[in-house]
Amino acid sequence: MTDSDTLLLGLIGDNIARSRAPVLHRLAGAQNGIAVQYDRLVPRDLGEDFEQVFDRCAAGGYRGINVTYPYKERVTARLRVDDPLVQAMGACNTVIFEPDGPRGFNTDFSGFIAAYERVRGKAPTGPVLMIGTGGVGRAVAFGLARLGAPELRLVDRDLAKAEALAEALREAAPEMKVVTGTDATALAAGAGGLVNCTPVGMVGYEGTPLPRAAMAGAVWAFDAVYTPVDTQFLTDAGAEGLDIISGWELFFYQGVHAWAHFAGLPLDEPALRAALQAEDAA
Question: What is the pLDDT of residues 227-236, one digit of tens each?
């Protein structure tokens, strides 16, 4: 519990010990003169299932919560979701507790769009190769649909998972061509954008999901991994002259957008960016 002058927030997920979300929201609160308590809530550590933790947050004075792996799809059935693309996505990462019930948003979706536009403005995406069709992949894929990507090539070792996402995209964005496969290199030729939504490149999962030779001719690359920021995938893409969009940008903007839902208060984004980067470097 917390006093009435403190904004109570939380994150429900597994393996969230290293999440920087508590720092981002504490700094956002400090900009506005608000104390923020942002709790990491791991169901198995609490001896509860997801639904029990969620219900405790709803009844326990939390203004809102973020939801991460593996609960983004599970939570959505319990929420009112207004954005039709987020409805079609079937995954939410931000929940606001309102008197008439909880509302759901996906700020990975909106955060990816903001990250793309920060680097590339209104430049068209061109055909996009996206490797990995899990939770963040779903958000990025629908973000690409919102950005007007003419073609999306979905690659996953689990072809059925890629096909399920493809079907949802075809229904929600029929103007976008969607193809699926299991071989990233085979589908890379002619792609303007290259996207990694797998854990490959993360600390402990070193490597790259696409060889540098397959990047020739592409224009931009995004990696959802942000620990480290400079993954081999992005380093190779930079060496090939591509525009680089780091996973840190997605982390930053999904947090900024979540804060807008949680608090409805303005942020000095450059100052928040600088403060976060300073804490990360400390």
Answer: 889 999 999 9
38, 62, 71, 226: which one is catalytic?
71
Residue 239 — φ and ψ, nearest 5°? -65, -25
253 tagged catalytic: no
Residues 25-35 as b/e (b if ≥16 CB within 10 A, e otherwise) read bbbbbebeeee
Cα separation, 166 vs 105, whole angstroms: 21
Amino acid at 251: F
| pLDDT at 124 (0 to 100) | 98
Give average pLDDT by consecutive 10-residue segment, the chain, 282 residues: 76 90 97 97 97 97 94 94 92 96 97 98 98 93 97 97 97 97 98 96 91 98 92 98 97 97 96 94 78
The per-residue pLDDT for range 133-167, each reduced to its tens digit, is: 988 999 999 999 999 999 999 999 999 999 999 99
